[in-house]
Amino acid sequence: MQSKVVVVVGATGGIGAALVPKLAEAGAKLVLVARDADKLEELVNNLEDDYDIEAIAVPTDITKYAQVEAMVQKAIAQFGQIDILVNAAGAGVMKQFLRIEPQELDQMLDLNLKGNFYTSQVVANVMKDRKIGHICNVIGILGKHPMAMAAAYCASKFGAVGFSKCMADELRRLGIKVTLFYFGGIDSPFWDNVSLKVDRSKMLTAETAANAIMFALSADPQAVPMEINIQPESHLFF
Q1: Residue 166 above 60 pLDDT?
Q2: 6: Cβ contacts below 8 Å, ≥ 6 apart
Q3: CA end-to-end span of the chain
Q4: Distance, CA of 56 to CA of 40 (rounded, Å)
Q5: Overall pTM surpassing 0.85 (yes/no)
Q6: What is the DSSP code string of 182-208?
Q7: Could you give the residue numbers annotated as active site?
Q8: Are residues 60 and 68 in contact, defined by beta-carbon separation less than 8 angstroms?
Q9: Rounded to 5 degrees, what are φ and ψ at 223?
Q10: b/e sequence 44-58, b meaning 16+ C-beta within 10 Å
Q11: pLDDT attached to residue 194
């Protein structure tokens, strides 16, 4: 990871916040992306205090294509390249299918599907010139297995899986790897605004998820960990 340029989308959230210090410790140059500018600046300041690295904060709404393009342009202006993209941003609406409002469906599709698509596409267009790169899309287990009360969320995540697999097939010849992560329940701020009753003590930790991403990023150059599936023992999907 030494001197590699890593874009982390959702850098201030549960998985992103756990991943960023690990990347910093490994010597990566960081482009930290989230909506909240104050949280991003605080994160950059903490990293600069704790690690001898270069990091920039780029507040971005990834549901807006123009903002994604601007974010990537800032990354290139600062570091000249992008080696790794980690899409760890996401949100969930968990309610009965018959009660899902149109704006709630739009929210899921805009962030979890279209936002992921935009960042992957714009960054891949930069990576292809150097014929090297690694895109990591954090999907979650509900992108593979349906669950009651999660129709809108599953729709967005199943869609993210579909485009990611198509993207992987197209980008392989350009030397760009794609890894999908199917984590089970992660104890993170994701659940703060979800009305479902869940036992967060039995969930995976964000640290576990971050370690899995680091494993994929540190794999042998000839090895492509295409999918990583980690679930809590308390509720497994098969």
Answers
A1: yes
A2: 23, 28, 29, 30, 31, 82, 83, 84, 85, 86
A3: 33
A4: 9
A5: yes
A6: EE--EESGGGGG--S---GGGSEEHHH
A7: 153
A8: yes
A9: -105, 135
A10: beebeeebebbbbbb
A11: 63
Domain ranges of the chain: 5-230
pLDDT (tens digit per residue) in 51-84: 988 999 999 999 999 999 999 999 999 999 999 9
Rounded CA separation 13/39 (Å): 10
- The pair of three-digit structure tokens given for residue 2, joined into one six-digit string: 């030494």
Could you tell me where the DSSP H helices lie in the chain? 14-25, 37-50, 65-79, 102-108, 116-127, 151-171, 206-217
pLDDT for residue 109: 97
What kind and span of H or E run contains 179? Answer: strand 176-183
| Burial category of 219 from C-beta neighbours within 10 Å (exposed 0-12, middle 13-18, buried 19 and up) | middle
Average pLDDT over the chain, rounded to whole?
Answer: 92
* CATH placement of domain 5-230: 3.40.50.720
Residue 236 has pLDDT above 60, yes or no: no
* Apex 119 CA angle, 113 and 125, nearest 5: 130
Q: Return d(Cα 234, Cα 5) in angstroms, integer.
A: 37
Give the Å distances, CA to CA, from 193 to 91, 136, 217, 224.
9, 25, 31, 35
Burial status of residue 205 (CB atoms within 10 A of its CB: 0-12, 13-18, 19 or more): middle
Q: Which of 55-69, 101-115, 189-203, 214-228 has the lowest mean pLDDT?
A: 189-203
For the segment 217-228, the average pLDDT, to the nearest whole number, is: 90
The single-letter code of the amino acid at 104 is: E
